[in-house]
Structure formats: structure tokens, C-alpha cells
């Protein structure tokens, strides 16, 4: 059974609005949290089902920890998702964020926009 979708995406964070690329762990953590909240489940419930600690799941959701594929798969399963589902949701979320400004590169004394 597919979980109910959470509320629409919030306004871009200060980092994305300022032109910084979002970190993958932030995007994946946001997807985990949205899916958990859409199911009206607690951190403890999902952490127990995933067999990971509640503080660790909290840090994953906040983008403070870079999880292994095994941990991400366990968290996804605990939410009724497969790892491909979780990654697809994260990719969709990432694609919907504003793009960062391209970096500037110096080429033989000239300043050009990077491709």
C-alpha cells in the first residue's frame, strides 16, 4: 500500500534561495520525514520498524547524517516503500528545487560562466 502524500513542498530554504546546491542527505531526509508525517507515525514507531535508533533516524531526517544504502533501505521499508521508491521521491524533490547559479570559472584571465 502506498502512503498518503504529504503537504506540498515548502518554500525553498535559505541555502537554495541563496544559490547553494542542496545536499543529497538533506533531500533524502526531507522525503523520509514527509513520508513519516503523511502516515501520522512517530519517530519511535518508524525507527523500531527499521531497527535503527530513534536519535539516528531523527538525524537522518534533519540531514545531519549520511546514511548507508542498507539503512536507507530499512527506513524506506519501515515506511512501506522500497529503496527505489525513496530515491525516486528524493530525485523528484531535488528536480523541483530552484537551480543554483552556475559557478564562475576563470579561463586565461577571462571570467566566464561554467557550462
From TrEMBL:
<dbReference type="InterPro" id="IPR010982">
    <property type="entry name" value="Lambda_DNA-bd_dom_sf"/>
</dbReference>
<feature type="region of interest" description="Disordered">
    <location>
        <begin position="1"/>
        <end position="20"/>
    </location>
</feature>
<dbReference type="InterPro" id="IPR001387">
    <property type="entry name" value="Cro/C1-type_HTH"/>
</dbReference>
<dbReference type="Pfam" id="PF01381">
    <property type="entry name" value="HTH_3"/>
</dbReference>
<feature type="domain" description="HTH cro/C1-type">
    <location>
        <begin position="32"/>
        <end position="87"/>
    </location>
</feature>
<protein>
    <submittedName>
        <fullName>Helix-turn-helix transcriptional regulator</fullName>
    </submittedName>
</protein>
